[in-house]
């Protein structure tokens, strides 16, 4: 398996995950041979990278902790919720709640899973994938911090809906990289607007997550400039998960984790950053890593207890690295 830029993918490779449209339709199935017509279509959709198999016999999981079913349903519900916000209609609380129950089940069913994928986003699906990733990471962090099931559900809801206020801001939903100063001023309002919408249908904890996920420990965040103890743990968790998920648009996981650690305790709570480091793969699936002996291998599976490393020249040559030997990895090279 490889994680490759589109221009390096050739017609003898196979798609390693389904491609899902924002309306929830499956556009391409996992295992599809990537003909030039498909590649052209994906390029038009502004995909820049894909996970690919080099042999149809490969079956490594590169879709993260969510099943396609929950991912599809969640995207559909989030899209509908954004439309409802614009149309000033109330949110469908029972439906959202139902989807979040499914998400929690997917995320929590295996104790040893971590957030292990390099996410594939396009400007069109950015907000959906970002929201789902932040929800998954936040739930894993909450479990790591030994929160109760009810608290995990509120965190999942708040994380899933944390950027709902962006429904009002046209330029906000598509941005992947840095924004202009003008955009930034405008976008800051999404926190308060999200709070106002969520307050009507959900608990204060959930609404507060939307309002407070950009607050920082030293009071430098927005909208209120809250600091330290005034920011609830649930909002701190989603704030850190959101910062990480935003950073990995430009950084590798290991680099983003190092940056967040460096900015703690000033911006981020150390206990919460520690939880993040425990639930996110340092080298996610698809990373090419160099071992201390100089050999290069592709990460094809990773958990809290072990990692599977594939020889890129000999696909059946796999190296299983137990957690005690993770230090044999010198660095990520691709
Ligand atoms: Fe946000």
Description:
The protein is of the alpha+beta class. It folds into three domains: 2-53, Molybdopterin biosynthesis moea protein, domain 2 (Alpha-Beta Complex); 68-282, Hypothetical protein af1432, CATH 1.10.3210.10; 287-332. The chain is 41% helix and 16% strand. The chain has helices at 36-44, 68-86, 93-108, 126-144, 149-160, 181-187, 190-201, 204-212, 233-247, 253-262, 270-279, and strands spanning 2-5, 14-15, 19-20, 26-28, 49-53, 115-117, 280-285, 288-291, 296-302, 306-311, 314-322, 329-332. A five-stranded antiparallel β-sheet has the order 11-10-9-8-12, with no helix packed on it. Strands 1-5-2 form a three-stranded antiparallel β-sheet, with no helix packed on it. Strands 3-4 form a two-stranded antiparallel sheet. Helix 5 (149-160) packs across helix 8. The longest helix has 19 residues, at 68-86. The chain is globular. It starts with a strand and ends with a strand. The mean pLDDT is 94.
List keywords for this structure.
334 residues; alpha+beta; Molybdopterin biosynthesis moea protein, domain 2; Hypothetical protein af1432; 3 domains; 5-stranded antiparallel beta sheet; 3-stranded antiparallel beta sheet; 11 helices; globular; binds fe (ii) ion
